[in-house]
Amino acid sequence: DGGITQSPKYLFRKEGQNVTLSCEQNLNHDAMYWYRQDPGQGLRLIYYSQIVNDFQKGDIAEGYSVSREKKESFPLTVTSAQKNPTAFYLCASSTGQIQETQYFGPGTRLLVL
Amino acid sequence: AQSVTQLDSQVPVFEEAPVELRCNYSSSVSVYLFWYVQYPNQGLQLLLKYLSGSTLVESINGFEAEFNKSQTSFHLRKPSVHISDTAEYFCAVRRSGTYKYIFGTGTRLKVLA
Fold it and tell me: Taking chain B, what is the end-to-end CA distance rounded to the nearest angstrom?
C-alpha cells in the first residue's frame, strides 16, 4: 500500500531537548511538507521541499529544522529554540505536477513534559 | 498575501438536513481550490478539488463545491448529512505555478441525531 507514515504517534519533549519527527512516503512524490496544527488556527506551513537536497522555509520556520537527503524521507527537528512546541504535526507530500493533490500522513502529537 | 477565510468555526446541523460550509479566498489570480476533511487525531483526507473546467465539483460521498470566481468563493455543500459526516473541514488554496498551499482555520461540523 502506498502512503505516508509518521512516527511516533505521540512524542514527549523535555525542556531544552531537541526531538525529531519522522516522515516517510512511498508514493514517489517529489514535494514534501511539514505543517503545525493548533486548535482554532488551522494548518500553518513550517517547511517544504520540492526536490531532494533542497527545502524552503514556510510561515513559522523559527525553532525548527529539516533535511531532505532522500526522496522518501523528510524529518523535522523541533529544537530547544521552539518555546511553544506543543501541537499536532502533519507531514504531506505531492507529485509537484499541475494536477497535484497533497496527501497527508496520520500526524504526530508533540507534548512538553 | 494569499489568505483563506472560513467564517464559521462550528456548524451544528441535524441529521438529514442540508449544510453549507463557507470558504472565501483573497487572490483573484489563477488558483486551485481544495476541501479536506479531518477526523479526530488523524491526518487530512482530500474531499474534492477544483483545478479547471466545470465550476461544480463533486465527491463520492455526496458533497459538492462550486467555484465562484467573481465572489472568490468555494463553498462546500451537502443536501443531506449523516452522523458520520461529523468532522473538521478545511478549505485550501494553491496559486497556479507555486507549491505552497494556504489553509483556512477549519469548520467543525457536528451532525446531531
Answer: 41
Interface of B with A (CB under 8 A): 6, 9, 34, 36, 41-46, 49, 51, 90, 92, 99-101, 103-106
Query: A105 CA to chain B: closest CA distance, Å?
Result: 6
Helix, strand, coil in percent for chain B, rounding step 5: 5, 50, 45
Query: Which of A94, A96, A106 is closest, CB to CB, to B43?
Result: A106
Q: Of A11, A14, A56, whose CA–CA distance to A31 is shortest?
A: A56
In 3D space, the residue among A4, A7, A11, A63 whose CA is nearest the CA of residue A32 turns out to be A4
A58 part of contact set with chain B, CB < 8 Å:
yes
How close B61 gets to chain A, by Cα (Å)? 18
- Could you write out the DSSP letters of every residue in A51-75? ETTEEEE-TT-TTEEE--SBTTB--
What averages of pLDDT result for each successive group of 10 residues across chain A (113 residues)?
88 90 95 92 92 94 97 96 92 80 92 87
Quote the DSSP letter at residue A27: S
